[in-house]
Design brief:
By secondary structure, the protein is of the alpha/beta class. Helix content is 30%, strand content 27%. It contains four helices and six strands. A four-stranded mixed sheet has the order 5-4-3-6. Strand 1 and strand 2 form a beta hairpin. Helix 1 crosses helix 3. The longest helix is centred in the middle third of the chain and has 18 residues. The radius of gyration is 14 Å and the shape is globular.
């Protein structure tokens, strides 16, 4: 699981959400939960989504809507996350990054190896 402000977010939580969203389920190849601290030691959480081969990265507006929808759903299934949402400072909210097949953090994926559902930067 990935830790963010003291809560644990598991790949199963994310899997349950994204594969039950019709607009995403048929587009996703993989995902990774990425946690890190920026230069100012702010905690960051990114849900990186790798699209299937041939699928296009959606518009910024669509990604913003998906970000809202996914993290609202996470509040309903993960009590720890729901509890810490009021503690997350403005500007440190979790975000989503979407990548074409084999790009970004998914460049390292090898079909012969287990997928990396949790990473750090």
């Amino acid at each position: 699981s990935a830790a963010f402000f003291g809560c644990k977010i598991t790949p199963l939580d994310i899997e349950e959400i994204v594969y039950n969203m019709p607009e995403l389920a048929s587009e996703i190849n993989s995902f990774s939960i990425i946690t890190y601290e920026d230069e100012e030691v702010n905690k960051k959480l990114v849900l990186a989504i790798e699209l299937l081969q041939g699928k296009q990265v959606p518009s910024t507006e669509k990604i913003q809507q998906l970000t809202y929808d996914i993290f609202e759903k996470l509040k309903t299934i993960n009590q720890d996350y729901r509890e810490v949402t009021h503690m997350i400072p403005s500007g440190q909210e979790p975000k989503i990054e979407m990548y074409s097949f084999g790009e970004g953090p998914f460049k390292i994926n090898d079909i012969r190896l287990k997928k990396h559902y949790i990473q750090t930067r």
